[in-house]
């Protein structure tokens, strides 16, 4: 087993996750089996109870693990399915060690950070790195480990840095000798700032970061310099001299138009040859056709001329990472239909009349975005705030026949909106928002424990069975009888009330295997009005877009029926035939070309 540790310096948020994912993609393109581990030093057991504004979205895995969004990057880039134990937190490690202590496994010894915590970290990494993640029963050959730890910089005021991460630093200091040099590789990602006042690329932050890392016992084998523009050769040579590495061990990742370009950028700088020599890998000096596909995707992305505008009506729109997987799923689908994505964010509360009274400019700007969008998306969320605005957006999509996709809470609100405006159930509501509602249209599930939030939802991969062949979503999935997608929710549509809807053209076309839980809704006589209880964005891949999101982009660009016909699938009956882009029906879909 070969281990590649990716650490960060200077500041967080400079792209360690994308770089780690890109390294894995390059190694996979060389024919190697790759897995990934993310280390987060926070005390939380997992990411399930985080506010989206703290760490961005909570990414859900097949096994129900609620993890850091970087694991989503690994899955999308490498096309693998990770497990909750691929996300190591300080909380998990301490919980594991304390349970062993309570069982008496340490035989009366004093339990300390060194050696017990550090040993537990090393054992966890070694055990989890052996778990297959790509459908191949053989163990992975390479484990890419991204550690969210910053080397502490000493100053007169004390220690500035990541205190929680120090046990992990010490664990890997020991681990590099346990694994042996030919099996352990350290990549340090550091920022090279370029102040606008001078335009000069500054190396001192990187020098200090590498010096601090060396002081902790870890020496980088490769320094990845993040910068806004390509690193000049003189700057690279300066970093090489002061950080005690060869010039070829300093690589640059500058800002690019698309993350699809990052693996190609690394490969062009000879990283495959470097890995081969340093880790004695059984590969050639260059990667295979898989990376060529990434290069083609990047080229196509930069050549796109047409634009499709999608409006996302949500609660956490101030930070894009709150909807990271949603954005990626839309981006994958937009690329598949040969359009650039123009994603507009609307805080749902801005669509409500209270905002009109308090800030009419913001209210009208929000409605202007909604009215000009080619498609409308209402993603998942929790809580009452902004739900009225979301339902107004849903009503607009339904009545104006704008393509619409509702995910999780978005589906539940679509059902409530339809009940209130089409079934005259004015008091219909969710027990999440109104526990004593006279018409409980959305109810909590048996799994829900009101006294405990962590891990009490319906989580992970679940089967959804289509109840009819006359379903647009079934067609988009390839006309299969059932699908498996990832869930994360505490509430569900009340199954005792669905008969009222199906008389009025809102059909529950997908249910769980027992037929008790409503998973998919579709509205007849509408270009595309779909709601799903699951989160299909977590399974989207750059070369395999998520079908519900692909359907939204196809409908928003007027290409849905042409696509279904091209795939040899008849469009569902009772649907309006949408218009197609000029020449589309006779051409092959980009999605088919890259699959």
TrEMBL record:
Residues 319-548 form the Glutamine amidotransferase domain. SUPFAM superfamilies: Class I glutamine amidotransferase-like, P-loop containing nucleoside triphosphate hydrolases. Gene3D superfamilies: 3.40.50.880, P-loop containing nucleotide triphosphate hydrolases. InterPro entries: Class_I_gatase-like, CTP_synthase, CTP_synthase_N, GATASE, GATase1_CTP_Synthase, P-loop_NTPase. Pfam families: CTP_synth_N, GATase. GO terms for biological process: 'de novo' CTP biosynthetic process; pyrimidine nucleobase biosynthetic process. Pathway: Pyrimidine metabolism; CTP biosynthesis via de novo pathway; CTP from UDP: step 2/2. Residues 2-281 form the CTP synthase N-terminal domain. One of its GO terms (molecular function) is ATP binding. One of its GO terms (cellular component) is cytoophidium. Its EC number is 6.3.4.2. Keywords: ATP-binding, Glutamine amidotransferase, Ligase, Nucleotide-binding, Pyrimidine biosynthesis. It catalyses: UTP + L-glutamine + ATP + H2O = CTP + L-glutamate + ADP + phosphate + 2 H(+). It comes from the Eukaryota. The keyword Oxidoreductase does not apply. PROSITE patterns: GATASE_TYPE_1. NCBIfam families: PRK05380.1, PyrG. Belongs to the CTP synthase family. Catalyzes the ATP-dependent amination of UTP to CTP with either L-glutamine or ammonia as the source of nitrogen. Constitutes the rate-limiting enzyme in the synthesis of cytosine nucleotides. This is CTP synthase.
């Amino acid at each position: 087993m070969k281990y590649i540790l990716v650490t960060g310096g200077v500041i967080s948020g400079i792209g360690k996750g994308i770089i780690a994912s890109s390294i894995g993609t390059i190694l996979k393109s060389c024919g190697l089996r790759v897995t990934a581990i993310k280390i987060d030093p926070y005390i939380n057991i997992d990411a399930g109870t985080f506010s989206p504004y703290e760490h961005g979205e909570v990414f859900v895995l097949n096994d129900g693990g609620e993890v850091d969004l970087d694991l989503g990057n690994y899955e999308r880039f490498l096309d693998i399915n990770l497990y909750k134990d691929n996300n190591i937190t300080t909380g998990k490690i301490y919980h594991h060690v304390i349970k062993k202590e309570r069982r008496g496994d340490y035989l009366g010894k004093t339990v300390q950070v060194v050696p017990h915590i550090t040993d537990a970290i090393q054992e966890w990494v070694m055990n989890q790195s052996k778990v297959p993640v790509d459908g191949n029963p053989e163990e992975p050959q390479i484990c890419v480990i991204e550690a969210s730890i910053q080397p502490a910089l000493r100053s007169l005021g004390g220690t500035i840095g990541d205190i929680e991460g120090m046990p992990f630093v010490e664990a890997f200091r020991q681990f590099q000798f346990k694994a042996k040099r030919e099996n352990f590789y350290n990549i340090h990602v550091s920022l090279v700032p370029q102040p606008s006042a001078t335009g000069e690329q500054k190396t001192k932050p990187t020098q200090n970061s590498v010096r601090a890392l060396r002081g902790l016992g870890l020496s980088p084998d490769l320094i990845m310099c993040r910068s806004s523009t390509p690193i000049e050769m003189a700057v690279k040579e300066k970093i090489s001299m002061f950080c005690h590495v060869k010039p070829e061990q300093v690589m640059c990742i500058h800002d690019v138009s698309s993350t699809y370009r990052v693996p190609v950028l690394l490969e062009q700088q000879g990283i495959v040859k470097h890995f081969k020599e340093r880790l004695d890998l059984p590969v050639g000096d260059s990667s295979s056709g898989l990376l060529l596909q990434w290069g083609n995707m990047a080229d196509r992305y930069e050549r796109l001329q047409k634009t499709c505008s999608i409006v996302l009506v949500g609660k956490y729109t101030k930070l894009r990472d709150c909807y990271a997987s949603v954005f990626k799923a839309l981006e994958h689908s937009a690329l598949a239909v040969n359009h650039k994505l123009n994603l507009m964010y609307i805080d749902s509360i801005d669509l409500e009349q209270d905002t009109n009274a308090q800030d009419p400019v913001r209210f009208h700007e929000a409605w202007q975005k909604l009215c000009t969008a080619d498609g409308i998306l209402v993603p998942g969320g929790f809580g009452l705030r902004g739900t009225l605005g979301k339902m107004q957006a849903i009503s607009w999509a339904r009545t104006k026949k704008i393509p619409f996709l509702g995910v999780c809470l978005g589906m539940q609100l679509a059902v409530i909106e339809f009940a209130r405006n089409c079934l005259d159930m004015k008091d219909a509501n969710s027990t999440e928002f109104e526990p004593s509602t006279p018409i409980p249209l959305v109810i909590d599930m048996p799994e829900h424990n009101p006294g405990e939030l962590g891990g009490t939802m319906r989580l992970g991969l679940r089967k959804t069975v289509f109840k009819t062949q006359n379903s647009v979503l079934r067609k988009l999935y390839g006309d299969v009888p059932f699908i498996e997608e990832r869930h994360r929710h505490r509430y569900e549509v009340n199954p005792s009330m669905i008969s009222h809807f199906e008389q009025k053209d809102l059909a529950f076309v997908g249910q769980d295997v027992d037929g008790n839980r409503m998973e998919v809704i579709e509205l007849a006589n509408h270009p595309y009005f779909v709601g799903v209880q699951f989160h299909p964005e977590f399974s989207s891949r750059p070369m395999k877009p998520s079908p519900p999101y692909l359907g939204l982009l196809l409908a928003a660009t007027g290409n849905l029926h042409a696509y279904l016909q091209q795939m040899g699938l008849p469009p569902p009956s009772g649907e309006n035939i949408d218009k197609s882009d000029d020449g589309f029906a006779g051409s092959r879909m980009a999605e088919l070309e890259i699959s």
